[in-house]
Amino acid sequence: MTAPGLILAAPSSGSGKTVTVLALLRHFRKAGVNVASRKVGPDYIDPMFHTAASGRPCINLDPWAMRPGTLTGLADENADLLIVEGVMGLFDGAADGTGSTADLAALTGWPVVLVLDVKSQAQSAAALVHGFASFRSDIKVSGVILNRVGSPNHEAMIRTALAPLGIPVLGALPRLEALALPDRHLGLVPAGEHDALEDFLDKAAVAVARHIDTAALHSLARPARFPSSAKLDCLPPLGQRIAVARDAAFVFAYRHLLDGWRNQGAELLPFSPLADEPPSSHADSIYLPGGYPELHAGRLASAARFLDGLRAAASRQIPIYGECGGYMVLGRTLEDADGVTHPMAGLLPLDTSFAKRRLHLGYRRATTATATPFGPAGTPLRGHEFHYSSIAAEDTAQPLFHARDARGTDLGVLGTVSGSVMGSFLHIVDRAE
């Protein structure tokens, strides 16, 4: 079944679309609507909040990094309503100009609802909406939600200015400072670290029920214009029994990849390094996803059973794969923000530092430099980097990937391999065609 869907987008980041989406998801859930969600682009944190709000797993849709068949399969959902949160501004994409929320709207035919931060404007909002609605003829802006409205008079001025455009104003949210989420260096603080998240979501749901015509918004949703896809196979599994690190230090794993491994017959065996749990002795492979090891370096360094379990698995030639934060833990040392150096697993010739911070951000076209569980040497993949930690020392005599950015600029090699252990700062999203 292809659920009727719609996209909540905005002119830019910081317009309030994430909180508005969360509020709508919780509202519809409490109203008995079978609601699900998707998040456009490379993002781990927002989907965690979506899942908490709706009670259903949120999956990413990435028009740049995913093959069309992958997008088709992941857009399919058995629900009454599918709410899709855009990324950045509606027309913002990768450096090559592709992969925007608008591209997804054009592909699916889902209507777009603009969330507009009007805190510092009035009639000018109409010019902004007119520009966004007319910029591309292959998408349709079907509604507007005004956010951070200052007063009834402020709202009336904007509604009057928007009326000639014929695009309905679905609601006007006042300035509610309580409906804000804290953030840190990689975005919002993850949902699992919010003790009062349920109360926040319930209050947000009350706000949208009071200020947004949710029935009118629901009525805009349309099924995607493409048919359901076959079973997904984004990435071959590391093995048939994969030990997966899952706790506050290892939170960045794409659900569509984990689901894809399960669909291919793999069993996932979660374990917590922060609880000093070793990977399962029944595992035939180990996956350390990204996360925040730099915030937990001391605990990880003292987690002897976890580290010894990794070393024992490596000695048995069990495949071990680390992404971003997982890659850092497989290295020799990790320097935290205070300049304290902590010993890590020592399985890869790598030293990293969070004290010497520099933002690394962007899409990557990668090919494997050697045979891996993901395919033979030369296997094409797409993914992204997003980290502040820097490499203090790295021996890339045996690299894992050759990489280019979204424009095609050669970035050299990424990551390293030692025996059955491999990793890099690349977050894989999908195989490439």
TrEMBL record:
Family: Belongs to the CobB/CbiA family.
UniProt-recorded name of the protein: Cobyrinate a,c-diamide synthase
Gene transcribed to yield this protein: cbiA
Alphabetic keyword roster: ATP-binding, Cobalamin biosynthesis, Glutamine amidotransferase, Ligase, Magnesium, Nucleotide-binding
Catalytic reaction(s) noted: cob(II)yrinate + 2 L-glutamine + 2 ATP + 2 H2O = cob(II)yrinate a,c diamide + 2 L-glutamate + 2 ADP + 2 phosphate + 2 H(+)
Membrane-spanning ranges: none
Domain spans labelled CobB/CobQ-like glutamine amidotransferase: 241-429
Listed Pfam families: CbiA, GATase_3
Membrane is among the record's keywords: no
Chain ranges of the CobQ/CobB/MinD/ParA nucleotide binding domain: 7-186
UniProt-listed Enzyme Commission number(s): 6.3.5.11
Misc. comment: The a and c carboxylates of cobyrinate are activated for nucleophilic attack via formation of a phosphorylated intermediate by ATP. CbiA catalyzes first the amidation of the c-carboxylate, and then that of the a-carboxylate.
SUPFAM superfamilies noted in UniProt: Class I glutamine amidotransferase-like, P-loop containing nucleoside triphosphate hydrolases
Enzyme superclass (EC): ligase
GO MF, any single term: cobyrinic acid a,c-diamide synthase activity
Domain topic, free-text comment: Comprises of two domains. The C-terminal domain contains the binding site for glutamine and catalyzes the hydrolysis of this substrate to glutamate and ammonia. The N-terminal domain is anticipated to bind ATP and cobyrinate and catalyzes the ultimate synthesis of the diamide product. The ammonia produced via the glutaminase domain is probably translocated to the adjacent domain via a molecular tunnel, where it reacts with an activated intermediate.
Record site feature (Increases nucleophilicity of active site Cys), residues: H427
Species of provenance: Skermanella aerolata
Pathway given in the UniProt record: Cofactor biosynthesis; adenosylcobalamin biosynthesis; cob(II)yrinate a,c-diamide from sirohydrochlorin (anaerobic route): step 10/10
